[in-house]
Amino acid sequence: MREFSEDYLRRTRSGMWDDSREALEPLALGSRDRILDVGCGTGELSRVLAAECPGEVIGCDADRDLLAIARDHVPVVAGDALELPFPDDAFDLVVCQALLINLPDPAAAVAEFARVSTDLVAAIEPDNGAVAVDSSVDAEESLERRARRAYLDGVDTDVTLGADAKTAFTDAGLDVCETRRYDHDRTIEPPYDEHALTVARRKASGAGLADDRETMLDGELTGPEYDDLRSAWREMGRDVIDQMTDRDYRRTETVPFYVTVGRVPDA
Length: 267
Description:
Its EC number is 2.1.1.-. It contains ten helices and eight strands. By secondary structure, the protein is of the alpha/beta class. It has a domain at 6-128 and 158-183 and 256-263: Vaccinia Virus protein VP39 (Rossmann fold, 3-Layer(aba) Sandwich), CATH 3.40.50. Strands 1, 2, 3, 4, 5, 6, 7 and 8 form an eight-stranded mixed sheet that branches. The longest helix has 23 residues, at 223-245.
């Protein structure tokens, strides 16, 4: 399973659910007694669940460093998603966010979630293949698309799972109740914060692509094709910095998430 830093989790989940929680309605959070957030990371979703649930919310993650941050929001327990440290029927809702896309066998995880749930299991998973980028730099959208396609081709789990998470639910023996879509927008515009400036500098240096080079080359992308992409990427990054200097740069990235809800049989 891939590991993620505190900064990555905070950055990619910043503002998520602040604009609308309509897609979470099938979880009936207001009626829950005990919720488990599996793979909670820094507790970004746990915080939202705790705000909506009158009962108890517990976060669970294998990374103890991330749990040290998540415990600011909810009680936490260290544990593996495929072998949860809880007895059968310990919760009435088990939920995860952007976890199944990083597991080689999502159905096995869903089955383990069902073991500890008396009622519902929910997965909030992105379709990373359908990310949309709107940028004031003409070349950014097409280069992002090329880089994303090459990266996804080299990843060994299904990071485009999204709406197809329901297959993992049925494979695990759950009855799928509903799937709803939620679009998470991340926007960069003036005034630019330090993170936005750092991202721009990493584009201009090619450092961002360098981090993903090994994964990209695990797919069909060749070495020379990677070098050409990185060269164009660095040029695009310089255009981003130029526009930032004039306070003209704007970028919106939209990541589609799908909330899939399943009921434990005989619940």
